[in-house]
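Researcher: Next entry in the queue.
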Amino acid sequence: MLIKKPSDIKYSEITPKNVYLNRRNFLASAAAAGAAAVAARPLAKWLSPQLAHAAGAKLAVAKKSPFSTTEKETPYGDVTTYNNYYEFGTDKSDPSHYATKFVTSPWSVSVEGEIAKPQKFSVDDLMKLAPLEERIYRHRCVEAWSIVVPWIGFSLSNLINKVQPTSKAKYVQFFTDLDPKQMPGLAEGGLDWPYREGLRMDEAMHPLTTLCFGFYDQVLANQDGAPLRTIIPWKYGFKSTKALVRVVVMQNQPETSWNTANAHEYGFYSNVNPNVNHPRWSQATERRLGGSILSLSRIPTQMFNGYPEVASLYTGMDLRKYY
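Model: Structure for this entry, 323 residues:
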């Protein structure tokens, strides 16, 4: 009998610890997070956007985005204790335990590649590009669970326009921070770090694609991608890059972490599609996160996660082939 050694096993073949431990972990974490869940969107003194990366700061929002859903928001306590963020561990509760001391200030983002004005931006610089909006988006995980979160940010197109893409600009690649001293999950290997993702230029420029600084009227929690991240609500959650440090505008389709690790299971586009199953589970339904554990009831998964306005981006494409 051939037995695989741990070094032979891909991340994509590993059953996450949360599958068999998470119910117990989640009940325990829910008790600890009870106060936060009750006060999901606490009132506090507003700080200026220029201080938004300071710990505990609240964010003044100019308006609520017309793209926002009216669905019930997932409690803050759940969104901050049930996370996929492998740099801090593969279990859903690992990021909330191990990201608490992650240093997010000072912080800068480098934008380079096929652009006329390559430069580095601080978080303060980025927040001056456009008024902050509250965008209540559905967010769908490839593992068939979902959340509804009031993200705070603005369209990524504001940043891309600022650096003036050239005629060769066809794609945008994103890189997450790489810091082995602060990210214990990196020692587990598995993926080719740093974590990277990518979009076609028209996807990156779509007004739904968001550069995100906060949620629930405050700055992002470390385990949710502080100090800034991307949100692409019609795609599976792993397409949204946390702790963003580098953006490269390029001519050719970029490598992305999960597609490189296992292209059979994780396509470059990764649009939410109930008609295209993951090889190991159905995508036709999902469980909405809420309360102390995942809801026992399932709801139908919507095409493009319920954002039909992006359908024109894929006219004429076979979405079973370009999954």
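Model: The helical segments are 17-32, 34-38, 76-79, 94-98, 123-127, 157-163, 201-205, 257-261.
Researcher: Noted, moving on.
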